[in-house]
Design brief:
The chain has a single domain, classed as 3-Layer(aba) Sandwich (Rossmann fold). Helices cover about 35% and strands about 25% of the residues. It contains seven helices and seven strands; from the N terminus they run H-E-H-E-E-E-H-E-H-H-E-H-H-E. The chain has a seven-stranded mixed sheet. Bound molecules: S-adenosylmethionine. The site of S-adenosylmethionine (SAM) has 22 residues, from helix 1 and strand 2.
């Protein structure tokens, strides 16, 4: 199986996935609802399902006759069981899932971690049935370019240098629409949403947990100093500090045909 940097073996990964569900599921559900294909009887596929919270919601929307499939490299942090929800341990790089059969295909915060996102997107698209909809939600770290104060900007600059070495693509959000267009998808549209958060908020907790867990890796990469990491963690604990980090880019399109 391929490596995923924030693997499920890390002790904070369950908490991190729970925070992602809390912070991102409302936006994800809103976009899914707007597509017009998530309804009773539909077949849905989520790839990189993490703890399964979105797939559980999809399964409830398509019940009783529809079916939701949730795929991940690692299903050890899934804690949901529903009759019409099937979990499948698989790598999206290996090929499409049940080609040509889904009314909806979605992936959130997955493609920036894969070695060949072009191929992963092609495999997701190939799982769609004619007129089926695909919704991709991925980060774009554009807002860190204006983060204040300058030490925080310096922290993110080191973080991005480290992530490039790890082959994580934190600029993938801006590429999604043109990639779907190149694959022949129709009615492509998208929006980027950036949370404004302060120290002690859920997003600050997310970053505190993540940075503390990766601290050793970050230090040994030479891209960040202990002092810069301490400064960043200090801001994350300060409710008077407000900032923005990720533009979550949500792009959808429809497969040709009716
Ligand atoms: C950052 S987590 C996001 C989880 C969830 N989608 C969310 O937004 O809360 C990325 C997930 O993608 C999974 N993943 C990474 N590469 C994958 C691949 N090649 N095929 C399937 N799943 C993958 C990881 O195991 C992990 O659960």
């Amino acid at each position: 199986m391929p490596e995923y940097v924030l693997g499920h073996h890390l002790k904070g990964e369950g908490k991190r996935l729970a925070l992602m569900s809390e912070l991102l599921d409302p936006m994800h559900r809103r976009y899914l609802q707007s597509l017009g294909v998530v309804k009773s009887g539909a077949r849905t596929l989520e790839v990189g399902c993490g703890n399964g919270s979105i797939s559980a919601w999809l399964a409830r929307q398509v019940a009783p006759d529809g079916r939701a499939i949730a795929v991940d490299l690692d299903l050890s942090l899934v804690d949901v069981h529903l009759l019409n929800l099937e979990f499948c341990k698989a790598d999206i790089m290996a090929g499409p899932v049940e080609p040509g059969s889904f009314d909806l295909v979605t992936a959130r915060a997955v493609l920036h971690h894969v070695a060949d996102s072009e191929k992963a997107i092609a495999n997701l698209v190939a799982s769609l049935r004619p007129a089926g909809a695909i919704l991709l939600i991925e980060p774009d770290f554009l807002p860190v370019a204006i983060a204040e104060p300058p030490e925080v900007r310096a922290f993110w600059s080191g973080w991005l240098a480290w992530s490039r070495e790890q082959a994580i693509d934190y600029q993938i959000g801006r590429t999604l629409a043109s990639r779907l267009a190149a694959l022949g998808l129709e009615r492509i549209d998208g929006t980027a949403e950036t949370a404004m958060y302060n120290g002690t908020s859920l997003w600050a907790d997310y970053w505190t947990l993540t940075v503390k867990e990766l601290r050793e890796d970050l230090m040994s990469s030479g891209k960040l100093s202990n002092a810069l990491v301490d400064t960043f963690l200090g801001y994350c604990a300060d409710p008077a500090w407000w900032t923005q980090t990720i533009a979550f880019t949500a792009v959808h399109g429809y497969a040709p045909g009716h």
